[in-house]
Task: inverse folding
C-alpha cells in the first residue's frame, strides 16, 4: 500500500501546485511510482504546471462517477515514466466529488503506486477537506508571511480533527514546506525566519525552498522545476525535501543560486 | 527614548512574529472551545438528570485554557425541593 500525502496550505498562491509537481517529479526520478491527484475542481492547474494540459481526456470526477476507468484518466508524464497525473474536472459542479468516490479512487491508486500526492485546493471548505481526508501524511506549504502562517495553523487544526486518521485517534504526521524563503531578507529582519515559523506552528520542517526565478521559468514551460532546471536552488531544495519525505536523513541546507560577475554587476539574471 | 534607540534599526519580522503568537494563541483557544464545551455540557446534563432533578440552566461548564494546563470547571446547582417549598 502506497503512502498518501496531502499537499495543503489554507491560503492560496503559496505554492501548493508547484510544490506537488516538483516533489512528485523528484520522487518519481528515484524510481518510485508516483501519482499526483489534482483536487482543485473547477480551477485545475496541476496539468498546466506539468505541461499535460492538452492530454487531459478524463478526470477525477469522471472516474468517481464511473464514466471512465482509472487507467483511462491517468496521464503518464513524458519525461519521467513513473510519474502520473489524475487531473481535476474543469467544468463540473464541485459537489460532484463525493467522499466515497474519493475513498475508492485513493484506495485503488494506493495499490498501484508508491506515493499518492493530493494537491489540495485553497481554503478550508469541502474540496480541501476531501483532499486531506484519506491522507497518511501532510505537507503544509507555508510562506514566511503572516497570513500564510495563520492559515497554516488553521489547516493543522483541520488535519488533526477532520481526517480519517484523526477520527480513528491516530496522529497525522505533518511537515512544513517553507517556500519563497529569502535568507537575505530574513537576516535583515524583514522576513519571518525559519525558526519563527517553526516555533509558531510547532511542526517539523520538510524543507526550505528559496525564492527563485527558476520556479516561474519552469511553470512557464510546463515542467516541474526539478526536471526543468535541476541545478536551480529551488530544484535542489525540492529534491532534498522529497528525500526527507522518503524517510532519508538529509541535512537542512539552504541552496543558493550562483550569480556570475556580469549578473552581479548589472543586477540581472539571464533567463 | 534613549540615544541608542535612534540608531537601532527597527525591523518588521519580530513584529510579525509577536502579532502571530498573540493572534494564534487566541484563535486556537476559541476554535476548540465552543464545540467541546457545548458537547460536554449536554452529556454531563444527561448523566446528572438520570439521578437528580436539574434544570437545563443549572449546569454550567467552562474551560479555561492556559499555556501548560487547562482547567474544566463544572458547576451544578441542585435545588432542594423541601427548602424551596418552605
Result:
Amino acid at each position: 500500500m502506497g503512502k498518501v500525502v496531502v499537499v495543503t496550505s489554507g491560503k492560496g498562491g503559496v505554492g501548493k501546485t508547484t510544490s506537488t509537481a516538483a516533489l512528485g517529479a523528484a520522487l518519481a526520478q528515484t524510481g518510485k511510482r508516483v501519482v499526483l491527484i489534482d483536487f482543485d475542481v473547477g480551477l485545475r492547474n496541476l496539468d498546466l504546471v506539468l505541461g499535460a494540459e492538452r492530454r487531459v481526456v478524463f478526470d477525477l470526477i469522471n472516474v468517481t462517477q464511473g464514466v471512465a476507468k482509472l487507467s483511462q484518466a491517468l496521464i503518464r508524464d513524458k519525461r519521467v515514466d513513473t510519474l502520473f497525473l489524475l487531473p481535476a474536472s474543469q467544468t463540473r459542479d464541485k459537489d460532484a466529488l463525493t467522499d466515497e468516490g474519493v475513498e475508492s479512487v485513493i484506495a485503488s491508486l494506493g495499490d498501484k503506486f508508491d506515493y499518492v500526492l493530493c494537491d489540495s485546493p485553497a481554503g478550508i471548505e469541502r474540496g480541501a477537506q476531501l483532499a486531506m481526508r484519506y491522507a497518511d501524511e501532510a505537507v503544509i506549504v507555508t510562506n514566511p508571511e503572516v497570513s500564510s502562517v495563520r492559515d497554516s495553523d488553521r489547516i493543522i487544526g483541520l488535519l488533526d480533527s477532520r481526517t480519517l486518521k484523526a477520527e480513528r485517534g491516530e496522529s497525522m504526521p505533518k511537515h512544513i514546506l517553507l517556500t519563497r524563503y529569502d535568507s537575505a531578507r530574513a537576516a535583515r529582519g524583514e522576513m519571518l525566519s525559519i525558526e519563527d515559523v517553526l516555533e509558531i506552528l510547532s511542526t517539523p520542517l520538510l524543507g526550505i525552498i528559496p525564492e527563485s526565478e527558476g520556479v516561474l521559468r519552469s511553470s512557464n514551460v510546463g515542467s516541474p522545476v526539478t526536471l526543468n532546471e535541476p541545478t536551480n536552488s529551488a530544484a535542489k531544495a525540492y529534491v532534498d525535501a522529497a528525500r526527507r519525505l522518503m524517510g532519508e536523513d538529509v541535512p537542512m541546507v539552504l541552496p543558493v543560486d550562483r550569480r556570475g560577475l556580469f549578473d552581479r554587476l548589472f543586477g540581472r539574471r539571464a533567463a | 527614548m534613549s540615544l541608542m534607540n535612534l540608531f537601532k534599526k527597527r525591523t518588521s519580522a519580530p513584529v510579525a512574529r509577536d502579532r502571530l503568537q498573540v493572534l494564534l494563541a487566541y484563535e486556537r483557544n476559541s476554535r476548540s472551545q465552543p464545540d467541546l464545551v457545548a458537547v460536554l455540557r449536554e452529556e454531563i446534563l444527561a448523566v446528572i438528570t438520570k439521578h437528580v432533578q436539574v434544570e437545563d440552566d443549572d449546569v454550567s461548564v467552562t474551560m479555561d485554557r492556559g499555556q501548560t494546563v487547562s482547567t474544566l470547571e463544572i458547576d451544578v446547582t441542585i435545588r432542594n425541593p423541601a427548602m424551596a417549598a418552605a
User: Anything to note?
Assistant: The longest strand of chain A covers residues 174-181.
